Amino acid sequence: MATGVPVISAPLSCPLVPPHFFNSLEGEVVNVENSPGEKVSIDLLIGLDSYWRFFTGETVKLSQHLIAQKSIFGWIVSGVVPVSETSFVSHSHQLFCLSDFSEKAAHSFWDLESVGVAKDESSFSDDHLMKQFENSVVHLASGRYEVSLPWKNEFARGCLLENESQSRKRLNNTSRKLAKTPTLEKQYHGVFSEYLENGFIEQVEDIPNVSELPHPVYYMPHRPVIKEGSASTKIRPVFDASSKGYNGISLNDCLEAGPSLIPNLIEILIRFRRWPVAVCADIIKAFLQIQVKPEDRDVHRFLWNDMGTVKTMRFTRVPFGNKCSPFLLNATVKHHLSQYPTSHVVDELNQNLYVDDLISGCDDEIEACAFIREADSIMQQASMKFSKWVSNSDTVGELLSQEFSDRSVTEKMLKVLGIQWMPTEDCFYFDGLELSSDAYVTKRVILSYLARLFDPLGLLAPFIVVLKCLFQSLWRLHLDWDEIVPDIIAQQFKCWLQGLHAVRGWRIPRCYTVGHWNDVEVYQLHAFGDASEKAYGACVYLRTLSKDGIWRTSLVYSKTRVAPLKPITLPRLELLAALLAAKLLSFVRDSLHFSANVPYTCWTDSTIVLSWIKSDPRKWKTFVSNRISEIQSLTDPSQWLHCTGNQNPADLLSRGISGPELCVSETWLHGPVFLREIRPKISSMKTVSESDVNEGVVISEMKSNPVLLKFETPDVVFQFEKWSTFTKTLRIMAWVLRFIGNLKASKEAHCTEDLTLMELQEAKVHLISVVQRENFSEEIACVLEKQSVSKKSPLFKLSPFIDGDGLLRVKGRLQFSHLSYEAKHPIILPKGHFSLLLIRHLHNTLKHAGVNSLLVRLRDEYWITGARRMCKRVKRECITCQRLDTAVSSQPVPPLPSMRVNTAPPFSVSGLDHGGPLFCCDTGSKKFYILLITCAVTRAVHLELVCSLSAEETLNAIRRFVARRGMPSVIISDNARGFVAAKKLVLQYFGSNSPKWQFIVPLAPWWGGWWERLMGSVKSSLKKTIGTRSLTRSELEITLFEIEACINSRPLTFVADDVEDRVSLTPSHFLVGRLLTSGPLNDLEEIPDMNNVDLVAMYDHRNQLLNKFWEKWSSEYIRNLPSCQSSVSGRKGLNIGSVVLVRDQNSPRLLWPLGVVQRVFPGRDGLVRSVEVKTSKGLITRPIQKLHDLEISSGVGLESLPVEPELDDQGVNISTGKQQFDTDHALSPNNTTETETAQYSRYGRKIKKPTILDL
């Protein structure tokens, strides 16, 4: 990547190098462009990562201190040049061009920096790999070509190690899998037998020692691939040339991929629609028709398990699996075709042969038959045969059935480069996609359907853009890939799928014209562009006039883009659509091989964009200017016209239409009505006037004229704000004073040694004097005139006087004390940057002392106004002190969430937690765990004994719980790995009926205190019940069930001494209507026979009892919950940009990592209790109780925070119910809301955000 800067360095002076130094360069002509002493500037700075790429390795020693190195630019001389016998002059590298360095070579270097931006104009012959290939390819007497592998270099070739043992292991795995399907195994071995019979492979009979071979040996593992839809080969082996050896290097690592010689797929399809008679074919086993030279065959070895006998084989041809195989095939075909004179057949093979598929055609049947014979004859000269010949013409079909009966097909439907084509009807069609009725719609499902629609020409673009916009709106919700989408989006997606059924029966004519392509008298291209707030797009139409005088218009190519996530104005989107239209027009024109003079017209319905295109791009802002310049480089502004929105077919691309509407739209396939007229009045279309343009939008995009403002500021001798430490400030002043002294002294008296203590003391006095004169000029003048200081002055009470050094000091009342002179009369300093540097220096000198200690030390020598406040600031801003002294963040206890204080069926809102491990006497050392499931409302518990903490065991326990207690609505747990993985399994198992799983903030167990408390009760009961005994698993499960019954029978309300109120509310009342630990019911034999009326009455009585339980729950349990008023008041809240210390209990405090707050999550009460922190290891979410605020921030206040959803203390969005702290949700920069806020330096200057040019 190249970076442009105004100046690299100051001008350099060319050295004087005597000519005799170059005598060692025999045969070279020295041409030094610059004379000695001439000032030259540096134009290009080459980094060390690329520096040595320019050297060839040739080095010549010119003298003892001068060396010349050969580079691609010429000889580069470096070292020192002797001025005399005892002195040398050292210079940087100086370039001497000893050969012709043309301007073309310079341009080729700069073009390297524009790869992917500028159009690649380099030809294949310029590539060194092509030259190497042309020099090594051999046309054998048999007609077959023999090629060499394109090795990166000899060093890479020598790094390839033999990997037979690794390949044998993979062969054994493949053989075991094939043995399970004997039919498949037989077919797989049949392929290798066919390869051996045809000479594609050969057996390595005698395997010599690998180290004795002059070339490397490499074994390619292979595996079968089944392709049911293939007409020729159902199963084929795929070889893995990327398998790493013992040194981590594979065959593909040592080979060059080569340049891409494959024609553009879309260009081939566009040209395919020209011809009335279509012809398609492909080469039989194209890669295996090219022979590899013997010295490269041993790197294509592989092992073949031939019915129990492992044989060592190797390819004699180019295998499919090497990364250079496509290059070798296409380069061989290009080389073979270059041997023939230019003709229609050769041009079609060059331009329309996509790897091994030929997609072409002709104007009539006679020409097509001749084309087939000649193309087949040309390729057979290279031992390549075409097969699967097919055409839409019956006449050509008869020829194929007669002369190519074994190499032709008569299928009614086949794929042409991925597009379905019906030769009998000569039209394109599309397959529909089905969605299973029991499948649930997720973001992954929608994206998969979007990716499965292969539409390279954009024929379905108005229909597909609807799904693109739907997916973008889904992306804004930040859902997980496997999370069920909202019902509204799911319904829209299913409606879109219904429209896909209509598209399935749609037939699109393949050919542009009815008559011959070469008989067309006039060709015209028309490009349309349009945009909306959701998407923008462009389409290109071809309008032809045949000899019969009929105009025909056909859609050629279209493209759509969804609008960026960042909001952008509609005129700018219209401009993007216009630029896309210009690019598509240029692409179609080049694809059809039209000349630059072919008539074309570009259309837009935006008068603003039209006015921009027809104006000077330099008058607009960067975004508009760059795109207007590109449009004007691709098209002529005079060819841009205006059309209304209802006449613009690109309007269908910007807003989208349904499948049935697309199938009946004549405007989409054949353009607007005025293009279908015999003589459309294009020249009389509406032009843009100034009154048609929105003046406000135009002005907003115009460049602003700079205004120069001149401010007069008083002269400042020293800008202390530029210096960050007191020591640096002192030394700078000392060097300035020495420089002044050296100027005044003679040359012999100049001082050049390091600074002395006396000089530093003198510099300190001068610094203080400068500071005092800048801040206390009026007070100094009053003292010099022996007048009293003004009462408004901060020095009025200090009675200042000027000492012998000219410094202001405090007079005070300690003149007769035994203190030092500095302590009795401290130097007066103002509050400012210099005093801040001084206090910081003393703070570090005193080993980070506190405020009082710092003040005591200051008062011994200085009197600073507002010293205590500045000492506190220094202490607060000291990172070292803050890391060790700052307290942990805290907030008041939050209110209980609504789902815990409102009535709900038992276990509707459940919390999960694991406890253990436990051991049983009958299972050895196997560990067991307790899975506790508690109800957030009734406080009931459900205990399960699980074998591990895995997700599968958790799922099984939840299934048992659901079968006995019913399906919960919400599950809340901590972020244990088993719970995180179990969430996905629960979603897969229960589907749309699965509960909503929410996670608390990581490392915040107190957020789940309502289940941690009950887990403590379970453990306490278990310890007291079992003691030191060892139980079997069955006994342990029974004990857990009994503990569950006891805990569910605990009272939730106050147990009164009143006889009338002796029944307390327990969780078991909500589960079974009575205490689980109570005695048996009355004798059931006394219960009379029950009828329907009695049963209904009992049901009503049960509901009445349940309602009384809930009333008692609301009046006695909820209202008597402790208020939990914490004695710790909340500290200052964390904001975005706050620097924090992340608490880690596993390491000492000095090793705790630092982080910056990226996002904050306010709760229901508006207080922040969890934040997202960026550390050196990535983004993490932590509760504020795990963070220590260093009170260093970028100045972002709470009122300027990004709008976050209102959350309760469980991190749940109150309005939508979405979990905010889901660990499945990727905390990536794409999901982080960025807030543009003003940032200031520590000196109060506003930091300007760098402008990124959108080129």
From TrEMBL:
Q: Which Pfam families match?
A: DUF5641, Integrase_H2C2, Peptidase_A17, RVT_1
Recorded hits in CDD domains, A to Z, give: RT_pepA17 (cd01644)
Q: Which sequence ranges are marked TM in the entry?
A: none
Among the GO biological process terms of this entry, one is:
DNA integration
- Residues of the region (Disordered) are 1221-1241
The UniProt regions of compositional bias labelled Polar residues, in chain numbering, are: 1228-1240
Q: Name it.
A: Uncharacterized protein LOC106159196
User: Which species does the entry assign this protein to?
Assistant: Lingula anatina (Brachiopod)
**The organism's lineage?**
Eukaryota, Metazoa, Spiralia, Lophotrochozoa, Brachiopoda
Encoding gene per record:
LOC106159196
